[in-house]
Amino acid sequence: MTLREQLRAGVASLAPLALGLSAVVWLGAGTALAQDTPTASEFLNAATDTANWILPAKSYSGNHYTDATQINPGNVEGLHLAWKTALDDPGPMENSPIIYNGTMYVTTAHDHVYSLDAATGKVKWEFTYSPHVISFAANRGVGLLDGNVYLGTLDGHLIALNAETGQKVWDKVTVADTANSFYTMAPVPYHDPNSGRDELLVGVSNGDWGGIGNITAYDPKDGSVIWSWQTIPGPGEPGHDTWGGDSWKRGGASTWGGVTIDPSTQTIFLNLGNPSPDFLASARPGSNLYSDSMVALDISSGQPKLKWYYQFIPADTHDWDPPMQPILFTGTVGGNSEQLVATGDKAGNVWILDATTGKLVDHTVVSFQKGQNTPPSLAGNYACPNTLGGVEFQGGSYDPATNTLFLPSQNECGFWTSNKEAVYIAGQFYLGGAFPKLVGPNTGQMNAIDVSSGTFNWRHYFNLPNYGGALTTASGLVFSGNLGGVENAFNTKTGDILWSYDTGGYIQAPTEAYEVNGQEYIVVASGAAGNTAIPELPATGQPSVINAFTLK
Amino acid sequence: MQSITSKALVPARVTGPAFFLLVAFLLAGTVIPMQAQAAAMSDHRTAVAALSDLQAAIGEIVHVDQSYSTDKQVYYRASQRAINALEGVHGAEYVATAGTPGDAAGAIGHIDALLDRKETPVWAAPLDGAEANIRAAIAHLADSRHAHELMDYEISVSRALSYLLVAQGGPTELGVFGGVEGVLASTVLGVPDGATVADGCATPSAAPSYGVHGGYLAWVAVPAGEGTHALEENAGETSVIVRNGMIILPTAAASTVAKACNSHAAIEPTTTTPPPATTPQRMAANAPPAPTRSPASPATAPSAAASALASAAAAKPMPVNAPSANPAPANTAATRAAPASADAPPPALYTKEQAKAGAELFASKCVSCHGSNLQGTAAPSVAGNDFLINAKKNGWTLQALRYLVTQDMPFNAPGTLSASQYADALAFLLASNCYPAGNTPFPTTDEPIFANIKLGPVPGPHPGQNSFGVCPDG
Description:
heterodimer, A: mainly beta, 5-stranded mixed beta sheet, 5-stranded antiparallel beta sheet, 34 strands, globular, disordered N terminus, B: 5-stranded mixed beta sheet, about 5% strand
């Protein structure tokens, strides 16, 4: 059974219940209109809906894959710019547009939200918010639910906007530690079939600033907490002894990589961030669970329970966490069809795990690796990749037709230094050292990894980093953007580049596909390089732009 | 060259030091024989095996320290196993029943096998030193087997560990090698069996290949973008060069080799062996002094150039961290200065000339992330209302600001400005935040009074202040 067949089967059995409940939700929500935001069943069906793109990675499975076939290897060279909309907030563009019934919702670096006509790019409304930036200005998208657009902000607010007008419905500070905590990820709408309640699942960014990560389910009506799960075990919990002394209290392991959900087993898969202080392991003796780990949480009982975890890098000293949303898929290994979950990490590894047990199935090195066992020293030393290398947050895709995992990776090395001790300053980095000095080679590649063997079907090398993730279409194309600003379409089978377009900005956002009035579009954001800036590229002057492409 | 494919890593719950050793072996691209094969092994494999035994011993005592066991025998056994890995089966302290995380030859067996020859290769002196340090460590490990209290045990074992870290050694930024890791990183011992060897004086023409000259390893060339390579963990490389589809990594010995190549003379180890700054530097970081003088220590290096290098190293031990690594608490010097209160006018801490210079620096090094209006594009604001309100809320002091700027900035190139440039940048930030200029320049070192200066909005009218609350820089 392919992934799509399996998802269809799963959806068919859940749909009646979900439809019934969502009808109740509409009644309760009063004025909220059904056509403004998706229903619970539409969220469950998101993978096979070629018109809309309603979750950050298309569906709950985290797989940037579309069934759309209008644009295919035979006609892709005729793809041209349909529209281009510049947005008035300069900064790095990292967002995954959310597209529903012909309207596109995008965000910019300082938490501005724009509603666009998906066919023309015309701005319908704009919500402007420029809060205090703790460290990195970035917003990766919004969630659509119950007639509202939900936004997590750089100052730790959850904000609900009316999807039709952009007017604020409610606004609440939902982080506990306001000095160090902020949101960059899109709130993920989820309908709990047991309680019948809608939820927004949101993880917090606070790991490199001396906080502790959590994943929290909020009530979309008012932002109140339904449940919350801490990523670092407290006193008395299993795994607490992997942190020496009180180091767990500022241990990091933030949750900013997105949320993958298997609705059929009510399991969520999360990638957790690096331990803190980032570069000084002696300040936190032990293996530091669940930092640099993937965890599977059973959410069927109303309070998450840990099903399994797999720690990729114990006691990490280089900020090499797995930053992307895990990809849940049914792949073929050893001739058998298996439920798998895959991720890359910033150390340049791709890991494929058994989604049921968390056991390692395959491990592939995808970046230039060097000096990985030597912690940063006072005098400094080299290691590869640096904190911008390896596999980054944009994620990738699994193609059932070729049993292939597509995702890009970077080769960047760094010169790292540690300090004698870690100094905690509220609202500032808690590192025990410094982020690495870039030393090159600052290149990247697109990888096609055969899931049955963990080896490469093909690789395409670029002379610049390639941060654009991977969108696979059922017609046999992979789309990805290069940091230099060129959007490319590859043939899934050969790796040949069949189409390219230079956006003129820098691309570090994932690519998506959608349809309006039966016509297929490809969309990607471009903007400034921000903290991914490298000496090979000019430093400034890139406007924030949404680029949409279509045939004829 | 070897890429890790998966099935080799099947043990799904290998954690801690064992995990790192496993990865180290895979990364080294070298199969580590677990049985004694000293007689049949190449020099490279013997050296790798010595390092493996040494690291196994270190792993054993580090691991037991993290076990939090209350059983003395667990600790005694770990010490014995570490001794076994170091000494091998022929050692006087070897006890077979404890087992060994190493191989039969032990680290000393492998090093002796390497040193047992008529000639004196460039790597002989550091290996001699490593062996002396290993023997000292064994003496402390032997003591630890009789410790009555955990504290006594830890004292003995931490001493042993400090000797073992010296024996393990490592290349440094200064281009100096030492210990077993050092010889693997910067001498012919680091060239794997069957690898392509080229003239270290020449530019690499193919990858993978190893550039060797006079017994030193000058560079390693690997193909660009191809996953894992057969490189030693830490080659002490001074740069990463990308050329003709290759990644070229000059080792710590590269500059030594370059000098020799330029003078068209082979390197004589007795005159050009660089001083092991590794040892004093490492020890400076780890507190206890170097226990046994390495035969390659500065005192025995006769060359004037080597002495000059050594004194340079001594004068500048930690160029990146030294100025700011340790923010001092309030002390006597701080109490002399009046603590800054909310009402008192803030002290004048910089000159207008510094702020002007800092403005130029900001425009070239900081503006791409912090914005020309200082309100931030990809990074936070650094001046004005937003910055100062958060500074007050979070209790940021001038010492914290100085620490962050000198430590972490510029992002992606920290520590790359000179001390006076950092001072100029801080003067510019103070000026932009409406702190008054004076006649005394902002210092290039941390001052105790900085811990008492809490940043926040400065009272009073400020001519020229803009709508963001930013003041002109002079």
